[in-house]
Amino acid sequence: MNVVAHPRAKGRVAASAAPAVSVVMVVYFTGPALERSLRRVLDDPRVEEFVLVDNGSTGLEAAALDAASRDKRVKLLRGHGNIGFARGANLGARTAKGRDLVFLNPDAFLEPGCVASLVETLEGAPAALVGARVLNEDGQEQRGARRGEVTPLTTVLSLTGLARRVGFLRRFEIHHEGDDLPTGAEAIPTVSGACFAMRREAFEAVGGFDEGYFLHVEDVDLCWRVRKAGGAVLFQPAARVVHPGSTSQKSPVAVEYWKGLGLARYFRKRASSAPAKAAAWLLFPAIVGVSVFRALRTRRARR
Hints:
Elements lengths: L1 E3 L16 E8 L4 H11 L5 E8 L2 H10 L5 E5 L6 H11 L4 E5 L4 E2 L3 H11 L3 E8 L10 E2 L4 H8 L2 H4 L20 E2 L2 E2 L3 E5 H6 L12 H11 L3 E11 L9 H19 L3 H29 L1
Parallel strand pairs: 2-3, 2-5, 3-4, 7-12
Antiparallel strand pairs: 1-4, 5-11, 6-12, 7-11, 8-10, 9-12
């Protein structure tokens, strides 16, 4: 693994100062959204350190990362290959020196004040995981930005759309993007991993991300473990980030496949009895199958 830093490059924070806020970003063939995302992070005055974990990039993306690394707040980690999101994020967190860690997707764009809102919420709840309000480019809140308890039942009903279409099943709908916005930070079981913050000691206390996940669901798992350890998961509507989605050059079928594998792993972890574990194993092919089918259907519809 190579660490690239440029101590003489321009930046707003003195190199000798211990940073309060570190942003960690794992990059893997993100596409043209990467440059805009990098620029938004470096333009945010609350960002004192920016750790970039390059799991794989095209030539243009590598050039954008090299350009960003000229800022003295940036640490660029590369040469380790595609180690998956969870391992990459943990690597970035171990490298970062900040008291507060902000994890941000490479295709997400910070809105003004987003980082400030996240870390200021942590001041009053240091054992919390604080998630941002994730928006589509049209300003609508993105599906999955705030969710209820993710269980086998709620997931199946959500994936199949039954929780939205069938009246008596609506109580099992886990997606709350259509709910009224709270006036401040609100406790919720699950927030999006596209942009969230934790105190370093809280992140380390729960063991960081579970590296058994390669791509997707590691954020759901982390929220669950934070709550299980007695911490809080909070949704902060004042912290806004735009996440267009589908910018990665990775096949959407492959992405959904990994998401299905992640859900199956998560349900096995949550199972507290032998019957529950057996049910989780039995649901495994159905969850993966539905995830892949949705990706295939979406791809056909776009043709």
